[in-house]
Every structure is written in C-alpha cells, then in structure tokens.
Amino acid sequence: MIKFLILIKKIIKWSFLVCGRAYVGINNIEWKLNPRTEFFDHNVDLLQVWNGRGLEAFERGVFNSFFIKKDSLVMELCCGDGFFSKQFYSQKAKKIVAVDYNIESHFFSTQMNASNKIQFMNESVLSDVFWNNLPSSFDNIICDAAIDRFTEEQSEYLFNKISQKLSKDGVFSGYLTVGNSHLTERSFSTSTELRSYFEKKFKVITILQSNHRDRSGLFFALQNFDK
Ligand SMILES: C[S@@+](CC[C@H](N)C(=O)[O-])C[C@H]1O[C@@H](n2cnc3c(N)ncnc32)[C@H](O)[C@@H]1O
C-alpha cells in the first residue's frame, strides 16, 4: 500500500514539474513581449522548487514573518508582485497595505495575489499624498529588495516617513541583495556596512547575511529609538 501511495505522490510531483515548466515558459514569453525588469513573479520560484531552484527566494518572507505578531497592521513598501504579502505576511496580519508605484506590478498583484486582507495601492512611496492618506501607525513596515533603489535624499525622506508611521514597538524589516544591479542607486556588501547605514536612523535589532551559490542577501530588522 505504502509503495502505491508513494507512486501516486511521485506522479503528482511530476505533474507539478510539468506545470512549473509550462508556467516558466509563459513567464519567458511574457518577458520577451514586455520585458519588465522592476519586479518578479515569485510563483516562478514556487513552481520551480521541485526543479532544484532552491528556497532562498523565500527567506525574506520567513525572516519578516518572525517580527509580525498575530492580527497586526502591516505595510509592505515596494511590494512588486504581492507574493510575499499574500503567501507570508497575510497569514499573520489582520490587514496589509501593500504599495508599489509600477502600474504593471499593481495589475499583477491584484490579479494574481489578491486577498481580502490586502489593500494594494498604486502609489510612489516618495509621495506625500501616499503617506498622508494612511492609518496613523503600523506594527510592521516591510521593504524587500528595494531599499537600495533610492538615492541618499530619497532614503532620508523615506526613513523619516517610516519612522513616523511605525508604532511604539513596531518593526521595520526587510531584505536586499548584496551588490549592485542595474536599478540600484547604492549597494551594500557586508552586514557591517548596512548596520552602520541604518544605525544613524534606527535602533538595530538584527542584521543578518545569508550566502547562497549565486547570490547573497542581507536582512534587517529595526525599531525607532525610544522617544
Ligand atoms: C526588486 S522589486 C521587489 C519587489 C518585492 N518587494 C519583492 O521582494 O519581490 C522592487 C520594487 O520596488 C518598486 N519601487 C521602486 N521605486 C518605488 C517607489 N518610489 N514607490 C513604490 N514602489 C517603488 C518597483 O516597482 C518594484 O516592484
């Protein structure tokens, strides 16, 4: 009996692999027709796990989730495809405001990662209009793979806004890739470098580095200094 069940499981797993390949094929066609370099469809990572892609893309979701308390109010800045808000953060949060200025990412997130707990907004995190129309405070503010996209002046603006909107014990956390990409304004190579960058603005709870075969990530969790 057990051998039969394992066989059924293998068949299901193979079907997932076939579906994964088909999904990636569609994704590749989509990129050829309309190269979108700003955000990524993380369902591709999900469907390719059994194909040997690895789980490192999900580290950010796990890391940020450690700091989310049950039924809290969460904001995800620069949410891209909305995958992490849907699959990770909404599992614990009561409500999430997820924002991205890219119209395609907004369309994608509302189509592919909709949830009645998530309010997707199509705004720039560098606009006063956006910040002035939010609830007064959030328990968690998350920003994955985007902090390094802002110039010094923009970061200054953003960090002030984040600090104002973070509740007393609230946590601002996130992830960034080590090194440069074509869209980044600045790069961080080590956890020490990132720590000294944040220390001027926030109380650092932790900064971690995770090294993988072809990419390394830096993870941060910060709080406001006691007022
Ligand atoms: C590399 S993607 C990361 C997406 C997602 N956080 C993730 O981890 O997959 C960076 C995202 O930042 C968004 N972004 C860049 N500048 C922005 C701004 N000023 N306001 C809102 N979103 C912005 C881009 O549209 C893009 O979706």
Description of the structure:
- The chain has 8 helices and 7 strands, in the order H-H-H-E-H-E-H-E-H-E-H-E-H-E-E.
- The chain is of the alpha/beta class and 227 residues long.
- It folds into 2 domains: 2-49; 56-223, Rossmann fold (3-Layer(aba) Sandwich), CATH 3.40.50.150.
- The mean pLDDT is 93.
- S-adenosylmethionine is lined by residues 38-40, 60, 78-80, 84, 99-102, 105, 124-126, 144-146, 149.
- S-adenosylmethionine binds next to loops.
Largest sheet: 7 strands, mixed
Can you count the beta strands? 7
The rounded distance between the terminal residues' Cα atoms is 64 Å
Percent helix among the residues? Answer: 25-40%
The CATH topology of the largest domain, please? Rossmann fold
Strand content: 15-25%
The mean pLDDT is 93
**Net shape:** globular
Low-confidence spans: none
- The helix tally amounts to 8
What features would you highlight for this structure?
227 residues; alpha/beta; Rossmann fold; 2 domains; 7-stranded mixed sheet; 8 helices; 7 strands; globular; binds S-adenosylmethionine
